[in-house]
Amino acid sequence: MKPVVVTGIGALASNGMSTETYWSATVDGTAGIGPISRFEPETYPIALAGEMASFDPKEHVPSRLLVETSMMSHLAIAAADAALADAKLVTSALPEYEMAVITANATGGVEVGQRELQKLWSEGPEHVSAYMSIAWFYAATTGQLSIRHKMRGHCGVVVSEQAGGLDAIGHARRLLNQGHRMALAGGTESTMAPAGLVAQIPTGHLSPRKDPARAYLPFDVDAVGYLPGEGGAILVLEEAGSAQARGVTQPYGEIVGYAATFDPRPGRGRPPTLWRAAEQAVADAGLTPADIDVVFADAYGIPSLDRVEADAIAAVFGPRGVPVTAPKTMTGRLYGGGGALDVATALLSIRDGVIPPTVNVTSVDPEYQIDLVLGESRPAPLRHALVLGRGYGGFNAAIVVKGNDN
Amino acid sequence: MRARRVAITGLGVVAPGGIGRKAFWERLTSGQSASRRITLFDPTGFRCQVAAEVDFDPAQYGLSPQEIRRMDRTAQFAVVATREALADSGLTTDELVPERTAVAVGNAVGCTMGLENEYVVLSDGGQKWLVDHEYAVPHGYDYFAPSSLGREVAWATHAEGPTAVVSSGCTSGIDALGYAAELLWEGSADVVIAGSTDAPISPITQACFDAIKATSTLNDQPDRACQPFDNERRGLVLGEGSAFFILEDTAAARRRGAHIYCEIVGYASRANAFHMTGLKPDGREMAEAIRVAMDQAQLNPDDIDYINAHGSGTRQNDRHETAAVKTSLGARAYDVPMSSIKSMVGHSLGGIGSIEIAACALAIEHDVVPPTANLYTRDPECDLDYVPLTARDHRTDAALSVGSGFGGFQSAIVVAADSGDRR
Fold first, then answer.
1. Catalytic: B394?
2. N or C terminus: fewer CB in 10 A for chain B?
């Protein structure tokens, strides 16, 4: 395997519209959760979200592009610009066919989709926008990033709901092993349209609570569901030799391990498989569990699924064997964007030697044998982090990152 | 050289005009188009009122009442095709090792029909922006998030290995097979259930393609509406369907005495970084994808016996693709039969890529290449051998299938008879 390094990060979420503002808020334990403002949610059993209320797409997206894209792509365009600037990567200096784009997506551009469905059904087919077909579909973001940055290598999209961000990075790493020199990889998402949120209500997984401090409490005895959020991250991944050749001496770190598994159908009498994704990713990295300094949890916020994750972590690392955290308690769950943001957060944690906290959680279920970092950030020398992600229906993915040796 | 090789040992197809691989192949070799006036919704008022539909009764194909309620038509197609493929491979779910069985599903537009049906109810016919959650059905989120398709195929095969939906628009069906082959090549799985599915014949999809004027307007001659490479072509005709494959390590397949249709020997995808829907006539990036896929396959242009064209029935595609094949195959381009089965089964978006690979596998199996239906007067700019109207006996050991889609994505895959069997 050729080493694959992360040389640029573009992160954004409701608690920070840029990588550094997001990171400082996250270290401080400042959440971006608030009442839903994009539409009036009063009739729904959901009140809160991690909306990117102060993100103005016009500041990030040219007007011509604005009309043919949805919020998920606006966020990606902003994140990718930031990541490339952070990496100081001049794309014109790299061979066009050796630059890839791999994003994760879960629900498509729901606000555009709902708007155009409404036009179709209330006004007729001739009222559907010519941009609908390219704005809402799951591959819209990858296509727009490819065009914007003239990246003509492999451009793809993976959908595994909220495991997707990790699968996108895992797939990009595969491509970099086979001759691509760089990849934009990650995901951003917004489900903030009435139809997008209402579709999730019957899953029973959305938290109905109205108090931002008590709504999304993964691993807590009082967990009742998750909150939706907007945002995500796009990373610049480079084949290490290629990065070195252009003078990169301080990458954030390296993607050293990846694995994905799928859970058996409930009722088949077989155990869930998240533990195996974790174990295989650590093995793929050539490491043992003892080498992992921190775990970024998927942190579903549903008791039955929290238990599966706590048991998986305890099985791989031993009871309370490794610090575990869930900074997504500050942003909500970000669908295709969540895994990539967690990988970005893990790399920044290693860089600064600090584990950001799991906010609002106060009473971890005593049956969970995990050392959850609560309340405040915990300083710690960090070298390797494991990031876990799960997608609705049974998807599991795990990534191991290693900090920069320098 | 790769340590492992990837064999296709099972094949299942749900396509317009024929469910099951036998009926599918009969349809393709008949040269008869399955496109007709749309029956899945009332197309009155739409620019294009024609599509290639599957006559599909899910109960007849073994789906249980609960599966029928839970799954959108897109997922139903996938599960029916998967079960056929698994039975064809001679493997059973009991023989598959769950941890070593992976799933890769290509899909472009999710569960469109389920999503649109739910939307119409929740919005009370498009009247309410604040849709009514009281009317939300248990599986509504499955229709928004096409990851549900991966789940259904995994559940149908008891797979517990890496599972993903590959959603790169109209190249998804090729890209899913490429993704699956990578999982085998790198050793992440021993068997991959791979294929693609879409059931997009719904008012919103039709309105989308009508809005960009990509659709055929030959509404009074439905079976003639899709005319790839013909000078009179009017645009694409939507289709629906699915094809799934059982992929396994060739050495393992030989050991168990499995029938090997062919091997996946090369795959590449490139992007034009030009326009979300527009194509430049030079076909440059598709040519590059073909070149890389042949290079991986260690095949020369002279080794390619058949090309399954993207052939969507639009002028820009026909010229783009013709140029790409000439650039990548050189003089050989003029000697290789190249046909578009979309002329018969329509364009099923993410579904068609795998359906076309199934056509390639069956062309290798039977040494017959399917025709391009409705091709009477070739576009003078398109001067290759598009196999007009009639299927042709043609020794086929290696086939290339190409796809082109929104986002500017261009994909190419090469399948070839197991070299142990090659004559």
1. no
2. N
